[in-house]
Amino acid sequence: MALEASIDRRNHAPPSTANGATTAVVLPPTRGLATHRLRLNPSSDHNPDSYDDLPLEFSPHLFSSLERYLPPTMLSMSRDFKLQYMRDILLRYSPDGERTRVQRHREYRQKIISNYQPRHRQLYTMQAVNFFVPSFLQAINENTEEGFRRIIAEPTPGIYTFEMVQPRFCEMLLSEVESFERWVHETKFKIMRPNTMNKFGAVLDDFGLETMLDKLMNDFIRPMSKVLFPEVGGSTLDSHHGFVVEYGMDRDVELGFHVDDSEVSLNVCLGKEFTGGELFFRGVRCDHHVNSETQPEEILDYSHVPGRAVLHRGRHRHGARATTSGWRVNLLLWCRSSVFRELRKYQKDCSSWCAECQREKKERQRLSIAATKQELLKREGTSTS
Question: Got the DSSP string for 16-59?
Answer without folding.
Answer: B-TTS-B--B--PPPS-GGG----SS--TT--PPP-TTS-BSS-
